[in-house]
Amino acid sequence: MTTPPSAATSAPAVADDGDVAAAHWRLVGAFLAPHRRALTGFSLLVLVAGALPLAGPVLLGAIADGAGGAAGEADAARLALLAAAFGAVGLLANGADLLVAWLGARLAWRAANQLRVRVAAHALALGSTWHARSTPGEVVDRVDGDATRVGELLAQVVVRLSAALVTLAGVVVLLTVQDWRLGAALALLLAAGGVVLVRLRDLAVPAGVVARQRSGEVFGAAEERLRGAEELRALGGSRYAVADLHRRSALTLAPWRRQETYATGIWSASMLVVFGGGAVALLGGILLQRAGVLTIGQVLAAFTATQLTRRPLEQLAENIQQIQQAGAGAVRLGELLSQPPAVEFHGEARLPDGALEVELDAVRAAYPGADDDTLHGVTLHLPGGQHLGVVGASGGGKTTLTRLLHRSLDPRLGTVRLAGIDLREVDEASLRRRVAVVSQEVQLLSASIRDNLTLLGSVEADDDRLVAALDAVGLGDWYARLPSGLDARLGSEAGTSAGEAQLLALARVLLRDPGLVVLDEPTARLDTASAMAVTRALDVLLEGRTAVVVAHRLATLERVDRIALVRDGRIVEEGPRELLRHGDTGFARLVAAELGAVS
Ligand SMILES: Nc1ncnc2c1ncn2[C@@H]1O[C@H](COP(=O)(O)OP(=O)(O)OP(=O)(O)O)[C@@H](O)[C@H]1O
After folding, report:
1. Which residue's alpha carbon is nearest to atom 3 within ligand 1?
2. With a cut of 0.90, is the ipTM above it?
C-alpha cells in the first residue's frame, strides 16, 4: 500500500480562502493517489462510452437520406446495413454504460474506503485539545459522510463529467461538420449555459457547506445526548434535550432549502440548453435545407445530435450538486487532515525491559492554540520501580504532566526521559508496549472480552494468559460465570459494573507487561467495595513496575513511595511519603490541605 503523505507536514502554508480550499483539495486528492492506474483505465472506458452515441445521429441522417432517394437493390442492402449498425451502436453504448456504472461504483467504494481509513487514523492521532473541541458525532460524520462523498467524487463523478464534456464537444463537432453556423450557434448556447451553471454552483456551494456543517452538529449533539441518556433521563433533561435537537435540526432547514433551490435552478438551466439546442438545429437546419446547403438527412442528424446533449447536461446538473456537497466535504476533510497530530514519531530507540526510570528536566508544556504554558518548568526524578503520587487542586496540571509520559503531548521546552532515553527518540510501538495508561473513564468496546483485553489484537496472548490476567486482577469469579468465556460480548453477554470495568482495564494493562504505569486515580469514582478490589489489583499490577498515580484520596497515597504536589503548572513540593507521617511538617500540611476536601 502506498504510504500517504503526512498530513501534518504536507499541509502547505495558505494565504486566503481560495488557497485554503485548493490546499485542502490537494491534501485530500493525495490520499487517492494509489488509485491512479485504475482511474486512468476507467477514464478511457468512460471516454469511449461518451463518444459511442455520437455515431447514432450520423447513421440516422444517412438512413434518412438513403430512404428519400430511389430505392435500388444496392441501396436497400446499404440501408439495411446502416440500420444494423445503428442498432449495434445502441447496444454497444448501453453495454459500455453498464460497465462504466459497475466499475465506477467499485472504484468509488475503494477510494472512499481508503480515504475513510486515512481520515479515521488521522483523527485518532489528533491531540486531546482537538478532540475536546469536536464531538465524536461530528468526527463520525466527517469520517463516513464526507469521505464517502469525496471518494465518490474523485473516483467517479469527475470521470463521468469528463465523458459528458466529450459528448458535448462531439455534438458541436458533428453540427460543425453539417454546417459551421450550426456548430457555432450550439457552441455559443452551451457556453452561455455553462456560465449560468457555474454561477449557480458557486452560489450553491456555500449553502452546501453551511448545511453539511449544521447537520454534522445535529449528529454530534444527538450522539452526545444518547451517550448520556441515563443521566439525562434521571435528571429530567430528556424533554429539553429533544427540544434542543429540534432547534438545532431546524437550523439546517434554511441552508438546505437554499441549496435545493439552486439545485433546481441548475436543472432548469440545463434543460433550457437542451431545448434551445434542438430549436437551433431545427430552425437553422430547415433554413439551410431550403437554401440547398443541407439535406433532410443532415438536418435530422443535426437535430438528433443536439438531443444527445440531454444526458450529459442532466449529468452535469446532477453531479454539480454532488460536486458541491463533496466540495464542502473536501474542505472539512482537508481542515481535519491539515491539523497536526498531537505528536509525531520518528525515533527508533527501544525502551529496555523492566521498571523504567522517569526524568523530567525543566519541562514547559502548552496545549495547541493556548497563549500560556500549562506546565512551567517541571523537574522530576523517579527511580525505576518507585511509585509517585501526584496531588494538587483541579486544573493545576496533573493530567498534563501524565500526558507527557505517554507522549499524548510533547514538552515545548525541556526533556522527558524514560530509562535515560529522550521520549522523542523512542519508537512508537516500543513506547506503547512499555508505558501503559489507565484513566478514570475506562474505554471498553462492545466486542468480545478477548478483543477488549488484547485491544483488538494489538497484544499477542493466548487464552491461558488472558484468563490468568483476569484471575490476577480478581475477575476470576466474574469470568467463570460467563457461558461463552472469552468470546462473551461485553454489554450484551457480559455486564460490567464500574469496578469490573476498571479491573478489566487493569488486566488489559497487565497483559502488556509495561515498565511504567500511568494512572489517573482509578478508584476515584468507585464505591468502597469496588475501590478495595481495584486497590488489590493495583498491588499486583504495580509490583516491580514504576508508577505515576494521580491521587485524589489520602488512602491512595499510602501505597506510593514519593509524593509530588502540583499547583499552577509547577511542582511546588516533592518528597518521600514518610514526610506525611509527621503531621506537623509543612509538606504534610500542604498535602492534607490539597486532599482535605476529597479524602
Ligand atoms: N486537552 C486540553 N486542551 C487544552 N487545554 C487543556 C487540555 N487539558 C487540560 N487543559 C488545561 O490545562 C490546565 C491543566 O489541566 P489538567 O487537566 O492538567 O489539570 P489537573 O490538575 O489534572 O485537573 P483535574 O484534577 O481537574 O483533572 C487547565 O487549565 C486545563 O483547562
Report:
1. 129
2. yes
